[in-house]
């Protein structure tokens, strides 16, 4: 089998920037560095919005529609160790779970208050009960997200033991382990432009304040 490009540059950047962002969000929350937490939160929001748009207009392997599989297909794919380009059926469930968990974490964060000085930017628009619920969800959902990350890494290790190296393609973009002939990736340029636009919009609306604290 020859070397095939399976992940475009945006998907790979999205993945590894997401890993760094989640580590920074955890660290900043634990250390009470809420300006850094907020700024990283907006960065993560820009990442996920772009990823979802790229899931509609982007590469074949980035398509959200390619994540839909029956549970039976998922069980079979895990057993068969199939070699197809893009997420397998079982992996697709994990990816959907990540998108939902990350969106819930971001959405609840925007409505969370530390009850002292710092409010998420949507706190002023919602009731006290909603803020309380969002704070509760923000704590609980993060624990679930952590379990999902552990499970994700364990699954990657299991695939490696079974002879399938998934990490190398997520780093280099290419794989020798799949049998496809037609191109499955597009130029990521448009995705990076959308990402830059999302960053500009988010940081000029909500991000100016945390950034001014961070760099003063
Ligand atoms: C904060 C921790 C992590 C999160 C939130 C996360 C999340 C994700 C998401 C959302 C995807 C789907 C990518 C997409 O289609 O856009 C993915 C795929 C992937 N992740 Fe992670 N990840 C994390 C850590 C890791 C680590 C530490 C590794 C390496 C051991 C890893 C290896 C992979 C690989 C190889 C894939 C592609 C799987 C496949 O071929 O279907 N991830 N991850
Ligand atoms: C994926 C994105 C996010 C992750 C992973 C995350 C993670 C966390 C974690 C782990 C905590 C500490 C919880 C605890 O003490 O048990 C926290 C607290 C907090 N987060 Fe986030 N967060 C994210 C996004 C956001 C966003 C976008 C905002 C607002 C703009 C935000 C606002 C807050 C606030 C105000 C607190 C303090 C709550 C308190 O003091 O009880 N977070 N976050």
TrEMBL record:
Membrane topology designation: Multi-pass membrane protein
Ranges where the Cytochrome b561 bacterial/Ni-hydrogenase domain occurs: 6-173
Keywords: Cell membrane, Membrane, Transmembrane, Transmembrane helix
Principal subcellular localization: membrane
Location of the protein in the cell: Cell membrane
Any single Pfam family the record assigns to this protein: Ni_hydr_CYTB
Matching InterPro entries: Cyt_b561_bac/Ni-Hgenase, Di-haem_cyt_TM, Hydrogenase_cytochrome
Protein name: Cytochrome b
Gene source species: Pseudoalteromonas lipolytica
């Amino acid at each position: 089998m020859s070397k095939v490009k399976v992940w475009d540059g945006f998907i790979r950047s999205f993945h590894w920037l997401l890993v760094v962002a989640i580590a920074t969000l955890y660290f900043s929350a634990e250390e009470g560095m809420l300006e850094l937490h907020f700024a990283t939160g907006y960065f993560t929001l820009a990442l996920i919005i772009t990823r979802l748009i790229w899931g509609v207009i982007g590469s074949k392997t980035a398509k959200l529609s390619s994540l839909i599989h029956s549970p039976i297909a998922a069980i079979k794919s895990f057993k068969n160790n199939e070699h197809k380009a893009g997420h397998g059926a079982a992996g697709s469930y994990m990816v959907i779970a990540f998108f939902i968990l990350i969106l819930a974490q971001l959405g609840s964060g925007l409505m969370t208050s530390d009850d002292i000085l710092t409010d998420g930017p949507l706190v002023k628009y919602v009731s006290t009960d909603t803020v309380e619920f969002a704070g509760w969800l923000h704590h609980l959902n993060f624990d679930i997200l952590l379990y999902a990350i552990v499970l994700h890494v364990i699954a990657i290790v299991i695939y490696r033991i079974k002879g399938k190296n998934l990490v190398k393609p997520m780093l280099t973009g290419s794989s020798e382990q799949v049998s496809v002939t037609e191109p499955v990736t597009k130029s990521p340029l448009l995705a990076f432009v959308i990402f830059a636009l999302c960053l500009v919009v988010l940081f000029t609306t909500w991000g100016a304040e945390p950034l001014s604290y961070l760099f003063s």
